[in-house]
Each structure stands twice: as C-alpha cells, then as structure tokens.
Amino acid sequence: MSELDQPATFDARLSGADLRDAWRVLDSAERAEGFRLLDPTEGEEFFIELPTIDQIALLSSLSPAEQRFWLRALAPDDSADLLQEATPEQRTEMIAMLDEASRREVRTLLAYAEDDAGGLMSTRFARVRPEMTVDEAILYLRKQADARLETIYYGYVLDKEQHLLGVVSLRELFQAKGSALVQDVMHTELVQVPEEMDQEAVGRLFAQHDLVALPVIDATGRMKGIVTVDDIVDVVQEEATEDIQKIGGSEALDAPYLEVTVLEMVKKRAGWLTVLFIGEMFTAAAASRYESEIQRVTALATLMPLIISSGGNSGSQASTLVIRAMALGEARLNDWLRVLRREVIAGSLLGLILGLVGFARIVLWERAFPSEIAPHAMLMGATIGITVFGVVLWGTLTGAMLPLFLRRVGFDPASASAPLVATFVDVTGLLIYFGTAVVLLKGTLL
Amino acid sequence: MSELDQPATFDARLSGADLRDAWRVLDSAERAEGFRLLDPTEGEEFFIELPTIDQIALLSSLSPAEQRFWLRALAPDDSADLLQEATPEQRTEMIAMLDEASRREVRTLLAYAEDDAGGLMSTRFARVRPEMTVDEAILYLRKQADARLETIYYGYVLDKEQHLLGVVSLRELFQAKGSALVQDVMHTELVQVPEEMDQEAVGRLFAQHDLVALPVIDATGRMKGIVTVDDIVDVVQEEATEDIQKIGGSEALDAPYLEVTVLEMVKKRAGWLTVLFIGEMFTAAAASRYESEIQRVTALATLMPLIISSGGNSGSQASTLVIRAMALGEARLNDWLRVLRREVIAGSLLGLILGLVGFARIVLWERAFPSEIAPHAMLMGATIGITVFGVVLWGTLTGAMLPLFLRRVGFDPASASAPLVATFVDVTGLLIYFGTAVVLLKGTLL
B-chain residues within 8 Å CB-CB of A287? Predict the structure, then answer.
C-alpha cells in the first residue's frame, strides 16, 4: 500500500509504540487511560513487555476485573516475577485471582529466590519419552503448538522419575529418519543448570554456549524447568547495571533512573556517601600529625590533593577491572596470586610513569616560577616522585585485591567501589607522603 | 548407568569441558595440542564456542590444512567476526581458504562496521513466499533442516524485490489451517533493525521485546539478514564491560583480564592516569594561591582531602548513574532538564546531610580535643559545613551533566569516568573551600 492509498481518516486508537514513547512522562492515571485505549492484541503485547515494576504499578490503577484479566495473560514465570516484586498484601490478593493450575505453578516458582535459576525458569517445557519414534515426537510437538509451552522447538527426554536423559531439537527430528527412536537421536551431553545456581552464573553459561534454552535440574537430577535466552538478556543487563551502580558508590537503584522518586534515590545514595565521608575524616587525623611540617613548608600541603588523587585514580582503575573480570568469570578467587603478580608489575610501571611526571612537574615548575622551595627543587621533586610511585603502586594493589578479599569473606566484589578504594587509599597515601618527605627533606627544607 | 557399571579403563581422550577448564593456564602450543586430542564433534563444538580472540590465536598455531578445515566449520557471520579481529595479512590468507559461496557472504558482512547490526547478522535465514499455503511453508521449512540456516523456526515472508512483508513462526504454522495462505497468517507489525543500527541499541531492542530473532533491513526495506538473541547476550555483556572499564578510568581492554599481556594492559591504563594526573596538578596551583592562609591556619590544609573527596565521591556516583541510565536508554539527551532538576534536589539533600556531618565533626572534635582553632570552632564548623554542601552539590551536578554533555558533542558518555569527574571537581572544590574560608574566617582565624 503506497502512502497515497492510506485512508485519510485518523483512528482514535493509540498504538503500543506511541504509548511506549510517552510512557515515562505519563502519571499513573494517564498510563491506565492510555493502556485501555490499546486494542486487545496490542494491549496484551504491551503489558507482557512492560518491566515488572511498571506492571505492578499499572495493575494497581486498574479495576479488580481488569487485574484478574491481565494477571491471567502472563505466563507463570512472569507472574511469579511480578508477585515477587509486589507488596505482601498485593501478593495475597493477586494469587487469589489466578486459576487453580497457575496458582500451584506460581507458588512453586515463588519458593525459589528471585536471583536463582529456579526463579528464572519456566515450568512449561515439552516432554518426550525416550522410546518414542522420531515421527511420534514430531507429531507430539506439533500438537503442543497450541499449549502454553515456552518453546516447542526443544523436546526434553525424561524417564518415568522425571530424570533428564537427553534433549532433541525439532530441527534434528526433521533431519532424522522417522522410524528411529528418540533415545538414539537425542543429545546426552547436556549443559545443565542446577536450580539454585545464581542468575549471574546462568548468564555466563548462556554467553559461553550460545544456546537458546537450558534445562534446570534439582539435586537428584530431576528436571524442573527451562531457562530461555530471551530472559537472559534482561538478566545480563540487570546484573551489569547493579555492578555499575555499586562501582559508582551507590546502592543498586533497582528501577529506571528517571522513575525512582528523588527521595528514594537520595536514600540509596546517602548511605555510602556518609560512610565514605566519615572514612575520609581519617585523612584529617593523618595530616594533622604533620602540622608542624606543613607550617614550615606550605608547598607540602598544596601538593596533597595531587598525591592522594593519584592513588585514588589508580585504585579505582584496578578495582573496576578486577570486579568486572570476576563478574565475567575471567578471574576467580584462586587466581588471586596471578592477579597480584600482574598488578605488582602494572602498578610499578604506572607508578614509575606518574612518578617521573611528578618529578618533572616540580623541577621544571620551580625553574620557571621559583618559590621558597626552589633551592631544593631536586630534593622536593624526588620526594614527590618517590611518593607518587609508592602511592600508585599501593593504590593499584589495594584496588585489585579488595574485590577478591570481599568475595572471600562473602560480600559482593562490586562493593569495592571506586570511591571506597579511593577513600581507603587516601589515608595511607598521606602517611606515605609525609613519611617520605620527613626522611628526604630533614635538614634542608624541614 | 550406575557408577559401578562404568568401564574401569580410562580413555586417553580429553573432554571439551576439561580443556575449557585448563584453557587459561595453557600456552599456545599446549592449547593446540589439547585441541587436537578432542574427538571431532567435541572439537567442533569447542572451537565454535571459543571467544573470537582465542580462535585466531589457536588457528595461527595450527597447520594450513587444519586452519582451512576449522575456518570452514564456522558460519559466515562467525568467520566474519574472526576475520574482523585478525591482522590484515591473516585476513587475506584466511579469506582465500574459504569456499567460493562463503567467501562472497563473508566479504559482504565484512563491509559492515563490527559494532553495527549488519556486522552481527547472519544472512542465512529461511525465506518463504506470501502466496504459499501453510502446508507448503511447513514442508519447505522442514526441508531446510539440513541447510546451514541460522534458524528454521521463523520463516521470513519476502516479495520478489526482497522486501520484508511479514514473519511467521513454525509454531504458528502448526496452529494454522494447512490450506490457509502464508500472507493471511503472517505477522505484519514487525520490530525491524536498520542495518546500520549500533549493536548497543540492538541489545536494548531485544531486552525490551523478549524476541528470539529480529530481521535486519536496509534503507529501502529490503531484508538483509537476521540477528539472533544468542549473539545478543554476548553483545550486551561486552558493551557493559566496555562501559565499566571506561567508568573505572581505563580504556576498554577488549580481551579477558588475565589474557591481556601486562604490558598491553599498562598501555591501556597509563594514558588516562597520566591525563588525570596532569589535570590534578591544577589543584596545586589553586591551593598555592592560599599559602598564606594555610600558613596561618594549618588546620585548613589538613581538611583539604576531606573536602575534595566529598565532591569527588558524589560526582562519581552521579556520573555513574547517569551513564548507565543513558546506556539503557532510560535517560536521553533531551531529558537533560529532568536530570538536572532531579540532581539539583538530590545534590542539595546529599550536601545537606554531609554538610551537617562535617559541621558536627569539627565542633564535637574541637570540644573533645581542643586545638589552636578551638575558640572559633563554630565558625570553622560553619566553614566546613557550607563548603561541603557546596562541593557536594557542585560535584553531583557536574557528574550528572558531564555524560550528557559528552554525548551532545559526540563522545561516549562512559568517558565521564569516576576519576575524571573527581579530578574535574577537585580544583573547583578547593576554590569553593578557600573562598568560603576567607569570607567566614576573616578577622578571627585569618
């Protein structure tokens, strides 16, 4: 249909794409109103694609009858996600709205932690029996096209006790002889996901194997469900977002930036900032031990920010690299010695480079604009050069080891945020600085 | 088979899983040797799942005959990825090893930028015609099971000029009446990917729509290929890694942390650190304007690190949150006013909290351990409180606006790394600090 053929009248109906575009700037009443304007198919698609947090908000501004309708439109794994996020009262109310079969499934899924493979999986997968023929299996999968299965493109071969024996794709069935038995064409070397595996690890499995769906297995080898790759894209993105927000020195926001209320956001940000601020107070304590030195050579004080920031920057850099390597499974806890060895070399080289720049800065600057310290410029330059070398090396090692240490004692490595490392390194940086200055400048400037 | 039934002899063969576990600690000769020990099917799976960078390294330690064999085992989109990463000489050699048809396909794919949708896509998708019946389409897709198509589960409906008219899944074909026409059962409201769309944006499309494959379209509406979600998991993870490494103040490593040589890593890290170090030198220039004040009240100097770190930390936090919101498409360039408004409120509240803590620190500390400034503790406390409020607000606003500004002038917002923001804020922080001190303390301490 060319543009000229388009009917000249406009439709009062809203498209899903229009509503999606406007979504962020609408209040909840406007959202409900817009949503009601969608035609039924588009409405369903729109609702299913909404982030869980928006689904709950939207539902709570709809009538009970509408709530029941839309809740039932969701697959059990998606309604379980939604109920996971709802308040306890909402949850009780909403569970009551489901039909009996879904209610049982959702209750099972709710028993899993939200971040486990079990919490991600769908229980609606296609089961085939090992002694079926290929033709029977194809016919069976074909008949399931109407059922609300997650996918009919993979048949999971189970024995009577629900143990997973193998898997066969519809495509492979098409390629096999119709009279062959499923057990003879199925794959038996399977990548399996234990039900309590963390979703971040599940994401890594998918990234490594390029598969579309993975079976979830309990401790006795019984198959519980499947995780599909389309859910994993969200997981991978969500986990990266959490890590990034923690690296930036904030709690994870758990919702889109522009949709969290400002007050909630301040709550998530104030905690860490206050802790860091209090930690940073030790710098004042450290520096005041050297008040008499500062009094004699004020230039020492004016260089403090340069010194400590070089430690903070190199520390942030190292910790961020190690945090990400750990999240991707590239560096594990027992790689700590390899990480340490690499960072000793990297930190020394980086320290050497910055130390030389620092040395040059003092010597050249004093030659160009001589100050009180000009007669001892070389000595002052050496103080800065050696200090920067030490501080950068120390910052790098602290930054690299802190995430590994945190994992070792059971915390999230991403809590080794750039600001935390910087704060940690600042205090020691000042002690290295004044310690070096006292040794090198005693008898000349000090 | 219970454990007792296992044959008691051991096989000299290596499994793919064993090799994968040992991979990171093997040198290139050992890797090639281990790889040759795999049985052919496992070897193929292993090779296909290797990261591109390892595929190239492995290939270059194999014989030309082996190289040719393994190169031909890859799908064209994967060999294009591999050739993208190879040196120009390797590329010429390897292209010559492909068969004629693959060579043509690979050349087409190589013409796309690596990070575009076109660079991600596979050209091997299943085409169906609108006037086919459902039964004919099923039969056709079934026959394609042997062909090296990316997926046979979706049939793309094209007209004679290769314009995309619609898409129909095998599952939907199973559900439809066999005599219906494809054009009557196909979906026509399609999510399409323009061929030059950035892969980060493609990742967002998949995260939003929970789809398994998306068609790639050129400017005239002709279908060029499909992008599948299993490739997108890698893309999303890769893009997050790049952002995280940049936020940490380093160039993207482009390879696993433990596999980059230390020297290469130092190269990627030294540049930014040096730039930041030179930028930070301005703090010394700023502070030395106030040497006489420092001489009179050394306590002013010892509090410098506390002041500037509060600005740096709040700036890192804000910039990280905004960078991630932009990467997820939650905050766009023309949201800048909304971001600014939110951060003015958040920054003021955070500044208020930290300012009060800072005020309390001085007043209580001087009451507990009186120093030279004790008689003017309230005034000194007010100086710190007001300064911290100003510095935190300023840090927050700078951190939040810098990523938006960088995007506006065509740079990557993630370059607004935590260390860059901190450095940027440090200099201004000192000026705010000493400016406030001079105004408030003139005539008493100064």
Answer: 301-302, 304-305
